[in-house]
Amino acid sequence: MKIQTLVLSLTLFSSVALSSPLIDVAKVAGKIQSQVAELLGQPTNCSKSKYGQKCSYSVAETEIVFINGKADWITIEGIDNIPFNRNVLKSIGISPTKPNFKNNFTLRWSSIQGLKEVSIFKGATNSDYAYIKVFTK
Questions:
Q1: pLDDT per residue over 92-136, tens digit each?
Q2: Average of per-residue pLDDT values in the chain
Q3: Contacts of 130 (CB under 8 A, 6+ apart)
Q4: Helix, strand, or coil (residue 4)
Q5: What is the 3-state secondary structure (H, E, C) of 55-123?
Q6: Residue 107 CB: number of other CB atoms within 10 A?
Q7: What is the pLDDT of residue 19?
């Protein structure tokens, strides 16, 4: 009985978790640091990088490099429990579509929903992390 309850709970949690995104990349993309803080909360850490301010956020284990003052390079580590397929895009607020490039370790989309490039990398069994380029390569 306990195992059935656990399985049912995990199934319900999985469907709820996938129904709303962990983070909505489109809302964060191109925003200045104060606007991102309104969406994701205050960063846990910020440092200067070669390209601009780099900040980490606890939401979906996200790291953002602000190039020319705007959220440009976005890395999302918190997708480890999501299967490695095009539906992983739902977890970051993007409508799933066929990738422009695909191999056993990478899924990549170019010019998707106003973003320059979105890449998803595979972990041991599921997705590992997402890397989004908003404006610059």
A1: 999 999 999 999 999 999 999 999 999 999 999 999 999 999 999
A2: 90
A3: 74, 75, 76, 79, 88, 92, 118, 119, 120, 121
A4: helix
A5: EEECHHHEEEEEECCEEEEEEECCCCCCCCCHHHHHHHCCCCCCCCEECCCEEEEEEECCEEEEEEEEC
A6: 22
A7: 65
d(CA 116, CA 16): 29
Measure CA 52 to chain center: 20
To which residue do tokens 């998803």 refer? 120
Pick from 114, 130, 137: nearest CA to 67: 137
Apex 22 CA angle, 3 and 31, nearest 5: 170
* Angle at 118 (CA atoms; ends 123, 15), nearest 5 degrees: 60
